[in-house]
Design a protein that fits this description.
- It is built from 17 helices and 17 strands.
- The longest helix is centred in the first third of the chain and has 20 residues.
- It is of the alpha+beta class.
- It has 2 domains: 321 residues, 2-Layer Sandwich (BirA Bifunctional Protein, domain 2); 89 residues, Rossmann fold, CATH 3.40.50.
- α6 crosses α12.
- Helices cover 41% and strands 20% of the residues.
Amino acid sequence: MDVNRRAQQAQLPKGAKLYLPDEAGQKRRVEEALFTVFRRWGYREIVTPAYEYFDVLSQGTDHELQERMFKMVDRESGRLLALRADVTPQIARIVATRMREEPKPLRLAYVTNVFRYDEPQVGRYREFYQAGVELVGLPNPEGDAEMIAMTIEGLRALGLEQFQLDVGHSDFFRGILEDLGLDEGRARELRSALGRKDVSALERIVTALGVPAAATELLLALPTLYGRDEVLERAERLVKIPRSESALANLAEVYRLLRVYGLADSVLLDLGEVSGFDYYSGVHFEAYVMGLGASLAGGGRYDHMLGRFGYDCPATGFAFEIGRALLAMESQGVATLSPGPDFFIIDFTADKIGALALSRRLRDAGATVARDILSRPLEESLAYARQQRAACALVLGEPGAAGEQVRVLVLDGQGERRVLLAEILADPARHVPGVGGTHHA
């Protein structure tokens, strides 16, 4: 096979990501750590289909995201299908159509892949993985505080410490726009300048609007309304708009609850944040870590979404992006390789009876076991075992060994000894390290 042919066979489509065993092991550990947090908070797993009818999915999806869906035609019905580009609208539809009568609140969790036709970003490809939750049926600030507290617990479960959450409220800015009565074009320009934190563009747009002095002061202050308690106090002095004042009161209560959780130090309030403006209906947040130029988790309240499927019901949620979590762990030095098998069995006997019996006995005791099937010198087998990150090697039938003895080698250099095969089979936890929580030198 020529070099060009091999190169073509190794290529992936743009935006696709391959996880080789070590990477896949890290990815799985991140997912399991996050899902453990979700279970601790009482969330149950839901599994949604990878594709649905486009016209159904689009009911809960904004136009911009609809344009980035991967679409195909169903051969049977001729209807247009789409791969999921966001899990939340799927769960909103499922709750509205299948779980409407279940007692509220519903606590649902997922770990799944998502597909978006977009230029690859930091830690995100056109197929990427998310782990998240949806809390349905709880309208009060306790629900928003629970989402933020779970996100912080998830970050810590991944071993990340240098992080912060930026928390805002979409209705604060909506109230300002509503009061000003701007047309959609002007409102979009204002949002764009705020989203880019472009102060000079913001000043130019506000000057062109010709709004009263109080409104000008408020609009120009938005990028600076970023910090802790003092942000709420400053905003209260600047705004006299009922909808915005109500948003401030709601955000203040969420912040108070986070202080009760002991988590307020991890949170910065940002009233000038307008990302996800069309998606969220209330409190929203994003999590950032030092060394990563993009948020690795985010969420917020989306009370309007279930109404698109004919069921008015409050909801909030969040999701971690697994790829970005892996990058963040690497940047903070907490990404570790997955361990290999507990035991690697090297067998020089002809009949293999002892090795097979030992493998089965150790697996029955809860250990992970791999066997060296190849015939090769002992040192080569041990080198392979170390490369696979096995914890312990068990050598049977070694030339010169007495009878039914097993040589037990702890591969991190902590020593070795010889044990009768019958003794290990009778009580593996007593005679070999790593079975039943025991560790021997």
